[in-house]
Amino acid sequence: MNTFDWLKRAEAAQPGSGTTTERLEERVIDALRTVFDPEIPLNIYDLGLVYGLDVDEAEGRVEIRMTLTAPGCPVAQTFPATVEDAVFSVSGVNDVRVELVWDPPWSRDRMSDAARLQLGML
Length: 122
Fold this sequence. Notes:
Blueprint: H1 3-12, H2 24-32, E1 50-56, E2 61-66, H3 79-88, E3 95-100, H4 113-118
Organism: Paraburkholderia ultramafica
Domain MIP18 family-like: 25-99
InterPro entries: Fe-S_Maturation_MIP18, FSCA_dom_sf, MIP18-like, SUF_FeS_clus_asmbl-assoc
């Protein structure tokens, strides 16, 4: 864990940080929104790359099924670790598993309205 991650965890543990009122799933989604696709300048959650999110709040376990915009993406081998690191930075997360899947293939239809608006598609 680097110094930035340590500071982020320490800040999240402070009273009034929202960790006691926000559910773990909401905090995980917030963390996923800090990870940006390497080719399209949008976060992976609003881009629709996250296909499944299972959060066990009691155990602090998070399982993510996700894809990339293209199977030949040059970061396919390293990107799951990037996502894992972001989710591990969330207070209350003890275990993270990221599974990269290719079926169904990603399409623009999976993007949120906010992502479409940001790209000028609405």
